[in-house]
Amino acid sequence: MMPLAQMAEAVLRTADGREKTALSRKLAAEWKAARADGHTPEIGTADPPMHPARPAQPELLSPREVPRRRPGSPQGRIALLHAVAHIELNAVDLHWDIIARFTHIPMPMGFYDDWVKAADEESKHFNLMCDCLEELDSHYGALPAHAGMWRAAEDTAQDFMGRLAVVPMVLEARGLDVTPGMIDIFRTAKLDSAVAALETIYAEEVAHVAYGSKWFHFLCGRDNLDPKDAFHTLVQRYFHSPLKPPFNEEKRAEAGLPPDLYWPLAVAD
Ligand SMILES: [Fe+2]
Ligand SMILES: [Fe+2]
C-alpha cells in the first residue's frame, strides 16, 4: 500500500470531480481495510500542490460575480445544489490536504483515521449532489462557482492549528447552521432525492466538526494552551469576517463546540 500522504497527494492531483472522488473512496477503503486488519500503515511524506487539480468547468468567479439565486425557482434550486457540490469537492481536497501537508507534526493514528473517513464521506456527498443535479438535467460544471473556497487552505498552509480552527470548526460548523434551511427548500419543492441527500450530508457533517474539535483540543493539551483563547486568536488571524448567527447551537454542541467558543467571534470589532 502507498504511504497515506502519497495517497492524499494522488487525490489532490486528480482534476475531474467524479474521478477525484472515485480515487478518494478507493484509497479510503484500502486504508480502512488495512486498519481493520490491525496494520499501522505508513504515513510517509508528500508534496501536496498549493492548489489542487480541478476540472476546467465550473468557471470560478469572485463571490461578487456569482449570479444571485432565488431558491424558490427551479433554476435557484439547481444553483443551490451546484453550490453544495462545489463545497463538497473542496472539502474532499481540504481533508486530503490536511493529511498530506502536516506530516512533520507527529499525530496519533486516530487523527488519520478520522480525516480519511471525512474525505471518504465528502466524496460521497459530492457524488450525491452530482446525481441530484443530473436528475434535474444539469451537472457539476454547468454553472459558475465560488473562487474563494480554497482561501482558507492557503491562509493556513503553514499553521496546523489554524487549519483545524478555520476549516472544520468554522467552515464546516457553518454548514450545520445552514443545512436545515436548505433541506426545507427541497422538501417544499417535493424533491425527495435532494432531501435525502442533504439529510445524509447533515448527519455526517456533525462528525467532521467533532473531529476538528477533538484534534484541536488534543493539540492544545499537548502544547499547554487554553483552547478558547487559542481558537479566538487563530480564527481572528485567519478568518477574515465575524461569524454569522443564527448558530445551530444544538448540533454544534453535539460536535463539541460550546457557545462560548464561537459567540465571542460573532461580533464585529
Ligand atoms: Fe460534506
Ligand atoms: Fe465535512
* Mean pLDDT across all amino acids: 96
Number of helices: 10
How far is the first residue's CA from the last residue's CA? 50 Å
Give the helices and strands as they follow along the chain. HHEHHEHHHHHH
Task: Report strand order across the widest sheet.
Answer: 1-2
- Count of DSSP strands: 2
Work out the count of structural domains: 1
In short:
This is Rhamnosyltransferase. This protein has helices at 4-12, 17-36, 74-101, 109-135, 151-155, 160-188, 192-223, 227-238, 249-254, 259-262; strands at 60-61, 145-146.
Q: How would you characterize the overall build of this protein?
A:
The chain is mostly helical and 269 residues long. It is 64% helix and 1% strand. The radius of gyration is 18 Å and the shape is globular. The N and C termini lie far apart (50 Å). One fe (ii) ion binds next to α4 and α7. This is Rhamnosyltransferase. Pfam families: DUF455 (PF04305).
Give structural attributes.
binds fe (ii) ion; 269 residues; globular; mainly alpha; Rhamnosyltransferase; Ferritin; UCP012318
Question: What's the SSE blueprint?
Answer:
Blueprint (H helix, E strand, L loop, with lengths): L3 H9 L4 H20 L23 E2 L12 H28 L7 H27 L9 E2 L4 H5 L4 H29 L3 H32 L3 H12 L10 H6 L4 H4 L7
Helix pairs in contact: 1-2, 1-3, 2-4, 3-4, 3-6, 4-7, 6-7, 6-8
The structure holds fe (ii) ion (FE2) (2 copies).
